[in-house]
């Protein structure tokens, strides 16, 4: 028997022993059948199914929206034609491939020896846009275009999927796997080299050692988490690296195991949950391994926990059935608890001052420090209740940056900005913005390519990509609806005004050609978009991925 | 177009009986949390009831269910309020303890499942569909909506990682 067959036999044999308990199967059957009755009667109880329905609606967008690497092509194209520049340990490529608005274009040699496509155009940037300049930048490469980096999206860096990094593995980077593009400096950073520069002099990384890192875990733009194995599979340990201070820490946890833990903002401690008869939570110092109890949750059905944005609060969530979640926020300094019963926890402001959430009465807000709770918008019969709540959040830190609520036709009713200092801004979109935001793209195939039926056609409404700058003053978004697909829009959160910048024509034409298959029933395709912004907010990148 | 309201109770019950174990395995391994896995399976069948088209055969139906379950898992994982919360270090820790005898795990089974559980998500899915459900690369690509080359690379990397773990644990003789 071939090794592969043997492996298959072993794995299948083990996995098939996992069966759903009969009582659970029975419960699900009853629930599904009862849902059928509800659907038939067209009753609209907002149950957990509805909540999950929101998840499913998210899925209709998010199943595409992981990452696109349209950005990188020009860079890689030129990498093929030239030796990669050897800079410092972490800089692979000095290239500011800036294709601004594309009225006139020319090719020129950059200072790094790479040809750049460089387009200049003067556009009318309103005075309220303090950076003064906004250019649409492009780095694209067809060969890179069709795989995702799941979980990493900070807006400032474009992380290159390990599987797609083959083209970069040349010269001194032949054995490297982890790269990211810095939108502020226009450089491609080799993270392997950044790690090696610190750990090799310490004798921790030796010849034959290999670095393993999963962007989807707890890496951030500043901190990397990884483990090291020797080529003989001997485990060397798990580490963090602070890219700013170029210092490392050896962890007391084993990153090879997808453990149940969250890490603090400063990467000094973890919180973990342990279950015996009920959930108890602990804090573990990552350097010493010292373990101290945070609290005894006195609950046996907790399903999620974590640390708040500022790490002032430890929180956990419990599901009680009938769509009711309870969220407990525990103040780590005062030991005070705030408990919120919610159908859908929407967001916690960046400064941890407020929780904004939905319950049976409508959209509410609680001030965590005082416990004061107020109703922001009544549920009533407002159609927004039939709509959706969307969160824009930093996929690296998991922090919510922006939430908005829209009705069933996609019209945005409220937008809650959690980035500004006090996170208090609740504004309505004006009509102009709303029109652009919700423009329907059209029908396309999304998830049911097995079916030849029309039901697999869906309408896309609402912006396809969005990004808030770090100051919370500017909301950038892209809508691939025909009327707007050539532009990226910028909305001033303080002024309520809007301006747009055009995509480079070549870029747009190529994107249009590649995404044209969306309308072809014989060739169903999906597409996802993302925006990235340089730190000074002068360069914005649109990326897309076409999924065959 | 056959949709939810035209499906009979018998049809729904049959589908749940036939596919719930398979979907539970997929969701459990993907989510690492039995309660989320139950939710995902339930949601998949609700979706089946409401949305599913008529199928060309049982294989078609199964693939559709896997795809929907995978999307639901992906979405649950992405949701900020749905981070994994149960230690998935060990398969026994994520299943009902009082039902453990029903599973009849041998040590080797447990080791294999733990190794799969500890794979990064993107590798879990392809390894599971290939080895357990018996799909080929093209079919997996269709189900997960990724390219065939991505499936192959994930397979290759997943196998390497499994092998590393097996070597560490003495599962393979070298």
Textual characterization of the structure:
- The complex is a heterodimer of chains A (548) and B (174).
- Chain A has 548 residues and is an alpha+beta fold.
- Chain A has 7 helices and 35 strands.
- Chain A has a 4-stranded antiparallel β-sheet. In chain A, strands 8-9-10-11 form a 4-stranded antiparallel β-sheet, with helices on one face. A 4-stranded antiparallel β-sheet of chain A has the order 12-13-14-15, with no helix packed on it.
- About 30% of the residues of chain A have low confidence.
- With 174 residues, chain B is an all-alpha fold.
- Helices cover 68% and strands 0% of the residues of chain B.
- Chain B has 8 helices and no strands.
- In chain B, α2 packs across α3.
- The radius of gyration of chain B is 17 Å and the shape is globular.
- Chains A and B meet through α1, α2, α3, β13 and β16 of A and α1, α2, α3, α5 and α6 of B.
Percent in helix of chain A:
10-25%
- Category by helix and strand content of chain A: alpha+beta
Tell me the total number of β-strands of chain A: 35
Helix content of chain B: 55-70%
Question: Helix count of chain B?
Answer: 8
- Widest beta sheet: strand line-up of chain A: 1-7-6-5
Task: From the structure above, extract its key features.
heterodimer, A: 548 residues, alpha+beta, four-stranded antiparallel sheet, 7 helices, 35 strands, 35% strand, globular, B: 174 residues, mainly alpha, 8 helices, 68% helix, disordered N terminus
Layout of strands and helices, then pairs:
The complex is a heterodimer of chains A (548) and B (174).
Chain A (H helix, E strand, L loop, with lengths): L2 H13 L6 H20 L6 H15 L10 H9 L9 E4 L9 E6 L5 E6 L14 E3 L19 E4 L18 E4 L4 E4 H9 L9 E5 L9 E8 L4 E8 L4 E4 L10 E3 L5 E7 L3 E7 L5 E6 L5 E6 L5 E7 L5 E7 L5 E6 L1 E5 L5 E6 L2 E6 L5 E6 L9 E7 L4 E8 L5 E6 L8 E2 L3 H8 L4 E3 L11 E3 L5 E4 L5 E5 L8 E6 L5 E5 L2 H11 L10 E8 L5 E9 L1
Chain B lengths: L8 H23 L2 H18 L6 H21 L21 H4 L3 H11 L3 H12 L4 H8 L3 H21 L6
């Amino acid at each position: 028997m071939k090794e592969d067959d043997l492996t298959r036999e072993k794995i299948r044999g083990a996995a098939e022993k996992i069966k759903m308990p009969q009582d659970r199967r029975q419960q699900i059957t009853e629930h599904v059948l009862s849902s059928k009755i509800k659907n038939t009667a067209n009753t609209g109880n907002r149950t957990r199914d509805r909540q999950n329905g929101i998840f499913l609606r998210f899925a209709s967008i998010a199943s595409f929206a992981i990452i696109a690497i349209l950005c990188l092509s020009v860079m890689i194209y030129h990498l093929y034609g030239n030796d990669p520049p050897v800079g410092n340990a972490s800089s692979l490529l000095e290239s500011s491939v800036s294709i601004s608005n594309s009225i006139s274009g020319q090719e020129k040699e950059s200072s790094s020896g790479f040809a750049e496509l460089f387009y200049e155009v003067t556009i009318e940037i309103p005075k309220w846009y303090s950076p003064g300049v906004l250019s649409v930048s492009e780095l694209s490469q067809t060969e890179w275009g069709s795989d995702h980096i799941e979980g990493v999206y900070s807006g400032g860096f474009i992380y290159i999927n390990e599987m797609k990094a083959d083209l970069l593995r040349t010269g001194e980077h032949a054995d490297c796997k982890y790269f990211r593009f810095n939108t502020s400096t226009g450089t491609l950073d080799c993270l392997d080299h950044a790690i090696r520069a610190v750990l090799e002099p310490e004798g921790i990384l030796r010849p034959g050692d290999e670095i393993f890192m999963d962007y989807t875990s707890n890496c951030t733009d500043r901190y990397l988490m990884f483990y090291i194995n020797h080529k003989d599979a001997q485990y060397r340990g798990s580490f963090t690296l602070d890219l700013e201070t170029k210092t490392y820490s050896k962890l007391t946890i084993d990153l090879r195991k997808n453990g149940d833990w969250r890490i603090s903002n400063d990467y000094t401690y973890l919180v973990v949950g342990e279950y015996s008869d009920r959930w108890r939570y602990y804090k573990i110092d990552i350097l010493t391994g010292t373990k101290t109890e945070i609290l005894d949750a006195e609950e046996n059905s907790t399903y999620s926990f974590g640390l708040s944005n500022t790490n002032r609060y430890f929180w956990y969530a419990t599901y009680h059935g009938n769509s009711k979640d309870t969220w407990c926020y525990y103040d780590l300094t005062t030991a005070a608890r705030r408990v919120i019963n919610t159908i859908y926890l929407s967001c916690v402001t960046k400064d941890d001052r407020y929780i904004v959430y939905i319950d049976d009465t409508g959209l509410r807000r609680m001030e965590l420090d005082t416990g004061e709770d107020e109703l922001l918008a009544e549920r009533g019969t407002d159609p927004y209740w039939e709509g959706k709540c969307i969160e824009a959040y930093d996929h690296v830190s998991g922090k919510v940056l922006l939430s908005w609520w829209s009705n069933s036709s996609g019209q945005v009713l409220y937008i809650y900005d959690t980035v500004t200092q006090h996170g208090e801004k609740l504004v309505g979109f004006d009509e102009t913005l709303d029109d652009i935001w919700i423009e329907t793209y059209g029908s396309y195939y999304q998830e049911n390519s097995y079916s030849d039926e029309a039901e697999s056609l869906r309408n896309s409404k609402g912006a396809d990509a969005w990004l808030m700058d770090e100051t919370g003053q500017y909301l950038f978004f892209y809508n691939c609806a025909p009327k707007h697909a050539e532009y990226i829009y910028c909305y001033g959160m303080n002024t309520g005004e809007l301006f747009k910048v055009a995509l480079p024509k070549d870029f747009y034409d190529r994107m249009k050609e590649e995404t044209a298959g969306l309308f072809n029933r014989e060739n169903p395709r999906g597409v996802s978009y993302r925006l990235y912004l340089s730190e000074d907010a002068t360069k914005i990148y649109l990326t897309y991925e076409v999924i065959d | 177009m056959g949709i939810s309201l035209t499906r009979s109770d018998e049809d729904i019950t049959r589908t749940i009986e036939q596919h719930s174990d398979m979907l539970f395995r997929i969701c459990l391994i993907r989510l690492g949390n039995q309660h989320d896995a139950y939710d995902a399976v339930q949601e998949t069948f609700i979706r089946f009831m409401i949305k599913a088209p008529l199928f060309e055969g049982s294989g078609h139906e199964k693939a559709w269910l896997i795809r929907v379950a995978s999307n639901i898992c992906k979405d649950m994982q992405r949701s900020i309020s749905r981070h994994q919360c149960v230690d998935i270090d060990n398969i026994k820790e994520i299943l009902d303890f009082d039902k453990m005898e029903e599973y009849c795990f041998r040590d080797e089974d447990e080791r294999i499942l733990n190794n799969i559980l500890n794979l990064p998500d993107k590798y879990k899915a392809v390894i599971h569909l290939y080895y357990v459900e018996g799909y080929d690369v093209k079919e997996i690509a269709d189900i997960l909506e990724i390219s065939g080359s991505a499936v192959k690379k994930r397979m290759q990397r997943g196998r390497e990682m499994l092998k590393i773990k097996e070597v560490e644990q003495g599962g393979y003789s070298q």
